[in-house]
Design brief:
two-stranded antiparallel sheet; TIM Barrel; 11 helices; alpha/beta; single chain; 41% helix
Length: 284
């Protein structure tokens, strides 16, 4: 596994070139990007920037609108092939997204079938370009409260959807926050392999808040409070030979208020800290 920078998760507004520069400046091994920007910049220029800053293309946000009506889905999936092709041309093989954990409109089975169909259609397109799709479950009970129908909110449930999609290139976007708030344990990793997990987010939870009262948009930098067992989480990833990116997603007001370079610096420092806590060897 390797440390990757996603400027969007820490509130930094930067395009492809600036994000690559920041990743290189602060020693990240990879960077998240927009395939649309790569097309605008040009494939060769994008590859040159990545090479100059020793950054690999770690992943991109799944660019298909599958949460709204059929018209929006059809319109957005029509644009997926050129975006996937651009990502593949610069050497990227991963993208990811999240699924709502509840619905006021659709009962569980109808919701499951809808996601299986839409995500399956998109996954088939991604497979043509050897790109894997990571799906993130949302764990906190507070994210489901007040909604009429619960939906997938655990790793096991999301893996059932991945299996039902059946394309072979769909797995988990595993966020330690959602792992923790859904009651996940290190024993989960005994059931998983490197193929199970496409993408990883790390962070921490505020102290003094009961598990069922944790709110999704109130988090901390990884290793900041020690509430989440980041040592066990990272060692679990190591035990299955996870070879993908690890990104910080703290939803931290403190980090958002920093200037760009300070925000990236403290983000990298937090990754270095938890790598050391878990005893993960640094990449040579």
């Amino acid at each position: 596994m390797f440390k990757a920078l996603n400027v969007g998760t820490i509130g930094v507004k930067a395009g492809f070139i600036r994000a690559v520069e920041l990743a290189g400046q602060f020693g990240f091994d990879g960077v998240y990007f927009s395939p649309a920007e790569v097309i605008n910049i040009g494939i060769e220029k994008a590859k040159t920037y990545l090479a100059n800053y020793y950054a690999r293309p770690a992943g991109f946000s799944f660019p298909v609108e599958f949460r709204k009506d059929e018209e929006a889905f059809r319109k957005s999936i029509a644009g997926l092939p050129p975006l996937a092709e651009a990502a593949a041309q610069i050497g990227c093989s991963r993208c990811s997204t999240w699924l709502p954990p509840a619905s006021n409109e659709l009962p569980f089975k109808e919701n499951f079938d809808l996601h299986r169909r839409r995500l399956g259609e998109a996954a088939k397109i991604l497979a043509r370009y050897n790109i894997r799709l990571g799906l993130e479950f949302v764990g906190p009970r507070t994210s489901r409260a007040g909604r009429k129908h619960e939906f997938i909110h655990t790793a096991a449930g999301m893996l059932e959807l991945c299996e039902a999609i059946g394309t072979g290139n769909v797995g988990l976007l595993l966020d330690c926050w959602h792992w923790y708030t859904s009651g996940g344990t290190t024993e989960d990793f005994e059931k998983w392999t490197n193929k199970t997990i496409v993408d990883v987010h790390v962070n921490d939870a505020p102290k003094g808040i009961p598990l069922d009262e944790q709110k999704d948009n109130v988090r901390c930098l990884p290793g900041e409070t020690g509430v989440i067992d980041i040592k066990g989480f990272l060692r679990g990833l190591q035990s299955i030979g996870y070879d993908g990116p690890v990104v910080v997603e703290p939803f931290s007001d403190r980090v958002r208020k920093m200037n760009d370079e300070d925000a990236v610096r403290v983000t990298k420092e937090s990754l270095d800290k938890v790598w050391k806590i878990a005893g993960i060897p640094e990449r040579k």
